[in-house]
UniProtKB/TrEMBL annotation:
The keyword Transmembrane applies. Keywords: Cell membrane, Membrane, Transmembrane, Transmembrane helix, Transport. It comes from Paenibacillus rhizosphaerae. InterPro entries: MetI-like, MetI-like_sf. This is Sugar ABC transporter permease. GO terms for cellular component: plasma membrane.
Amino acid sequence: MKNSKTVPEHLFDASLYVFLAIIFLATFYPFWNIFVISLNDATDTLKGGLYFWPRVPTFESYMTIFRNPEIWSAIKITVLRTVVGTAVSIFCISMLAYALSKRNLIGWKYFSFFFVFTMYFGGGLIPTYMVIKSVGLIDSFWVYIFPGLIGVFLMILVRTFIEQIPGEIEESSKIDGANDLQIFFRIIMPLCVPVLATIGLFLAIGHWNSWYDSYVYTYKPELKTLQAVLVKILNQFQTASMMSDAQQLAQSSKRIPVSSESIRMAVTMVATLPIILVYPFVQRYFVKGIMMGAIKS
């Protein structure tokens, strides 16, 4: 079978591929350069000219980070927070979205307005802190879960997705004797896997990257998240880097294998790489979940 494409079409395709390759390199290279600098000797990095491969490979920056006694406890807390927080939020958001997808719900307009209102107006840090303290969540693991349990924007995505499901499916289920809970768990939830995977990715990234709530609401070292500990390590090295020229020369003569820059690059890799590795597992649901959850019929 002959190729039906004309010469201009082939040229257009080739130009498109070249353009996409340039976009890929422009977005991927900065991340790769961070990785290279994090693996290179700090003293050698000061010479510059480090682009594609480390000249003096070393894992000292990563060893410095993972030698911190708080890091392993922080990893455990962050993984637990990400798993529990994402799962509980998906469950609560999907149940709320299912309820608000029923336009015949008594007070539907008022409930919808109540949740949308919270997207535009908030109480601020001090009132939020006072509320969290009054309910006893300060220095508690659950301070990472309950305050951000419901994301209204994500709930709207799920609600819109549910509204695309034909109502005849629920009607036939009710004729067969199913109640609302059975319909939700056996029909709605399986059909909503694409959008739930999509919002799950958003929630997981939010939990993994969050550090400010750990900084404000917790004081016990064993409750600190990975991001908070990494920020602490980074601040320690940035403070240490603010020294006189004589002190910097003395450290350079000792060939200390890490610096503020190398630690900063290693911290970036430790903070971002795990969540990036999760993306390929949900990517196939991503576009479908966003598109069907964002389009209203």
